[in-house]
Amino acid sequence: MDKIVAIILAAGKGKRMKSMLPKVLHPLCERSMLDYVLDLVDELKIRRKILVLGQNYEIIKKHIKRKVEIVIQKIPKGTADAVKATEEKLKGFKGDVLILYGDHPLFRKETIKKLIEHHQRNNLDLTLLCAHFKKPSGYGRIIRDKRGCICKVLEEDKLNEYQKQIKEINLGIFCFNKESLFSVLKDIKPNNAQKEYYLTDAVELLYKRNALIDAIKIEDVDEAMGINSYADLTRANRIMQERIIQSLFSKGVKIVDPKTTFIAYDCKIGEGTVIYPFTIIEKNVKIGKNCSLGPFIHLRPNVIIEDNVVLGNFLEVVRSRIGEKTLAKHFCYLGDARVGEGVNIGAGTVTANFDGKKKNITTIKDKAFIGSDTILIAPVKVGKSAITAAGSVVAHNHDVADGQLVMGVPARPVRR
Description:
Blueprint: E1 4-10, E2 27-28, E3 31-32, H1 33-43, E4 48-53, H2 57-63, E5 69-72, H3 79-84, E6 96-101, H4 109-121, E7 126-132, E8 141-144, E9 150-154, E10 168-177, H5 178-185, H6 201-208, E11 213-217, H7 230-250, E12 254-255, E13 261-263, E14 268-269, E15 274-275, E16 279-281, E17 286-287, E18 292-293, E19 297-299, E20 304-305, E21 310-318, E22 321-322, E23 327-335, E24 337-339, E25 344-345, E26 350-352, E27 362-364, E28 369-370, E29 375-377, E30 380-382, E31 387-388, E32 393-394, E33 405-407, E34 412-414
Parallel strand pairs: 1-4, 1-6, 4-5, 7-11, 12-15, 13-16, 14-17, 15-18, 16-19, 17-20, 18-21, 19-21, 20-22, 21-23, 22-24, 24-27, 25-28, 26-29, 27-30, 28-31, 29-32, 31-33
Antiparallel strand pairs: 2-3, 6-10, 7-10, 8-9, 33-34
C-alpha cells in the first residue's frame, strides 16, 4: 500500500501499570504489545510507519529492530497533539493516514484491511472503527445527526443522560485523508482539565465542513481492547493464547488441555505432536513432528526438539537441542545440552551447566544411555552408544568415550 501511512501512537506513560518499563513494551504471550502492532502494519504491506514516542523513547528505540520513522512528542498533550507532531514528516505526502495505538495489540489484519478498503473505495475524508455494546459504560459514543450521519464522538464524561443510552461506541482507530486530517488538527482545542487535545474532536470539525465520514462495525470487540493495567494485560494474554492455540490446532497439533497450557507467540510445532496438560513453552522454541510433551514440562527459550521425541513428566529444558527419537520420560533438567538421536535419558538426570561464572555445554551423542540420577557436570561429552550407570556423576572435562560404560562418584570406566 503506497498511498497510505500508518501513524502508531505510543507516547503514553502507562501510569496505571506502575512499572519502569514503557507500557507498549509489556509482553503479551512473550512478545511486546508494540511489536504486535508493527507486525499488523507489515502484514497490511503499509510501507511507511511513523511511531510517535514520549519521554521513554530511548528504551523503545533500542527495542525496535525494523525500519520505522520516529517522532518525539516532547510534552504529552493528547492524541491530536501526537498526530500533529508528524506533520513535518508527512510534508509532500498525498494519500491516507491510518491511526493505530501501541497499546492495542489485538486487532486482526482482516479488520484493519476492511477499514482501509472501505475508506479508499468510497474516497472518504474519515472512516472510524466502531462496535455496538449492550452495556457501553466507559466508552466514547458515536453521535449521529437526524439523517444518521456521524457528526461527533463524545467521551463518556461529556454525555447527557440521553446520549448515555447510545450503544454505538468509538474504538479509536481512524483512517483519514491526510489533507482533511491536518486541515482540522490546528483547530482542535484543549478538551479537559489536563489541557489535552483529543483526536476524536476532529470528527465534529470535519462534519461541520461537510466532509465524508463513515464507520465500519466490527463483531469481535475483543480486538479493540486497549491495555491500561495488569488486569487488562492478563485478559489480553488469554485472548492471544486462544488465538495461538487455535492456529496450532489447524496445523495438526493436539493440545490436550488448552486452559493449563501456555505457548509463546513464535513457537513452531510440527504436525502430530501432542502436548499434555501443565506445559509451558516459551519463546523461540521449535518442536518437530510426532513428539509427545508433558505433562508438567517447561521448555524455556531457544530449545529445538526434533521429530519423534518424547519428553515426559516434570522436565525443564533450556537452550538445548534434542535429537530425533530421544526419550526423557521422567523428571530431568537439561540445560545447554546437545543431545543426539535415539538417546535414552533416565529419570533424575541433570546437566549441571553452570560453574558459577558461565553456562557450559553438555554433549550426548547418538544412542547413548544415561542411567537414572546421572549428573553430567559440563563441559562434558558422552560418546555414541556410551552408558552411564545409575547414580553416576560424570565430572567436567572427563568425557565418556564411544561405547564406554562408566559408573560411580566420580564416574570411572568399567570393562564390559
